[in-house]
Amino acid sequence: MLEKNNTMALEITNMVNETKNKLAKEINKSITYVYWNIGRIIVKHENEDNNRLEYGKEVLKGLSKELTKLLGKGYSYTNLTYMRWFYNTYPDYNKISESLSWSHYIELITIKDDDKRNFYEKECINSNWSVRELQRQLDTSLFERLLLSDGKANKEKVLELSKQGQVLNKPSDIVKQPYVFEFLGLKEPKPILEKDLEYKLIRHIEDFLLELGKGFMFVGSQQRITLNNTDYYVDMVFYNKFLKSYVLIDLKMNKLKAENVGQMNLYLNYYENVVNSEEDGKPIGIILCAEKDKVALEYALGGLSNNIFASTYTYYIPNKEQLINEVEKVLKNSD
To answer: pLDDT tens digit string along 149-206?
Structure first.
C-alpha cells in the first residue's frame, strides 16, 4: 500500500509541477506582452509630440498617477520608463524570448552595446540563468573576460558571441582570464592556504560552477592517483558534458612554477589512460594561480601534447572600465 501511495504521490507531484511551469510561462509571456505594448503606446505618443524630453517626463509622471488610480501598483514612473526603454530596445516583439522574464529584460535593456546585450541574452536562454546569475555575470564582466581570455579579442569573435553566446568547441574555450571568486567574501591582501581556498570553493560549489561556465559537473575534491606506491591528489575534478572531458583543476596560491605544469601533465596522462572511457575526450588541466609568467609558461608547455592551461584568479570583481577599454583597444587595432 505504501509503495502504491508513493507512486501516486510522485505522479501527482510531477503533474502539478508541470502545470505550474506552464502557467508561469503563460503569465510571463502575458506580462512582457503587456509591458511591451505599454512602451509602444508611450513611444507612439512621444513621437506625435516631437519627442520633447522634458514634456515626456511630465507626461510619464502624470500617466503613472492615473494608471495607479485605475490599475493599482506596478505603474510607477520608474516602471513606465523601463517599459518605454523595453520597447525602444526591442521594437520587434517577435525577437522577445518567452524563456526570459520581465526581470531578465530589465537587466538586459540597461546594456547599451547591441553585441554585448545579445551575448547575455543568448547565454540566459542557453544556460537557463536566473536573474541573480545574470546580474553576477554582468557584475564580473563575463563578456569582456571571454573576449580577452585567449589574448586576441577580435571582431569575428565579438560577432560569434553575440549571435550564439559562448560556444564550447575546443578545450581552450572553457578557460577565462581571470576567474573571479568574489562570492567567497575574502579580502585580497589576506593570505590563505590552498586547502582553505579549496574548502571555501567546495562550500560555494554552485557559485563556482557558475563561474566555471557551461556544462560543468562536480566530480570531487582531492581525487587520489596512485603510481608506484606514491599517492598524488588532484585538488578538484569536474566533467564538462559539452566537451565530454574531465577537467582537472590545481590551485596555487603563488606564482606559477614549471613543476606545477609537470605535475598537471602527470595527472592528465593518468586520467587519459586509466579513468577515461571510450566516449571521453582528452582530459583538460587548468592551473589556477595568483600570478603567471607568460614567457615561462610558454617554455613549460612547449612540446606537451596534453591540454594544459594556466589562468589567474581574483577575489574582487574586475575593474569593468579597464576591461572594456582593453577590449575596445584590441578591436580598434584589428581594423
So the answer is: 766 666 677 767 777 777 777 888 878 878 788 778 776 656 677 888 888 888 888 8
In tens, the pLDDT along 272-303 reads: 999 999 999 999 999 888 777 665 666 566 66
Instruction: Show the cell assigned to 137.
Output: 555575470
3-state secondary structure of 285: strand
Question: Cβ distance 233 to 224 under 8 Å?
Answer: yes
Distance CA 219, CA 284 (A): 14
The type of residue at 140 is: T
- 251-278 pLDDT, tens digit per residue, is 887 777 888 888 888 999 999 999 999 9
Residue 287 β-bridge partners: 250, 310
CA angle 39-42-48, nearest 5°?
140
> Distance between CA 187 and CA 189 in Å, rounded?
6
Question: pTM, whole model, 2 decimals?
Answer: 0.71
Distances (CA, A) of 173 to 169, 267, 307: 7, 21, 12
Query: Would you say 289 and 255 are in contact if contact means Cβ atoms under 8 Å apart?
Result: yes
